[in-house]
Amino acid sequence: MGHTAHNKTKLLNRVKRIKGQVEGLERSLEEGRDCGEVLQLIAAVRGAVNGLMGEVIEEHLREHVASPGLAGDERAKGADEIAAILRTYLK
Fold first, then answer.
1. Which residues contact 56 (CB under 8 A, 6 or more apart)?
2. SS3 string of 6-19?
3. Among residues 48, 54, 62, which one has the least CA distance to residue 86?
4. Is-contact 15 52, C-beta < 8 A?
5. pTM
6. What is the model's pLDDT at position 52?
7. The pLDDT of residue 5
8. Contacts of 52 (CB under 8 A, 6+ apart)
9. Span 6-27, mean pLDDT?
10. Most exposed residue of 8, 21, 32, 37, measured as fewest CB within 10 angstroms of its CB?
11. How many Å apart are CA 83 and CA 79, to the nearest integer?
12. What confidence score (pLDDT) does residue 4 get?
């Protein structure tokens, strides 16, 4: 069982908060709110998603790269996974 399963409730709560922020952003656009307000909401959503990503990356590194019981090939696989994800995420 992976770390996302262990932290499932915590992660799902974060996703639900992000969902609420996105819904607020959608309402603001539908209502024709001021662009400054919309930009602030977009920044908040981005920050929330980045925070979620950071938390999952940190746990991935701890469990799949830095865990003392891992063999060298397991560490390499964990590092390769995170490198590929970061390349995609940072585009």
1. 3, 4, 11
2. HCHHHHHHHHHHHH
3. 54
4. yes
5. 0.85
6. 96
7. 77
8. 11, 14, 15, 18
9. 95
10. 32
11. 6
12. 76
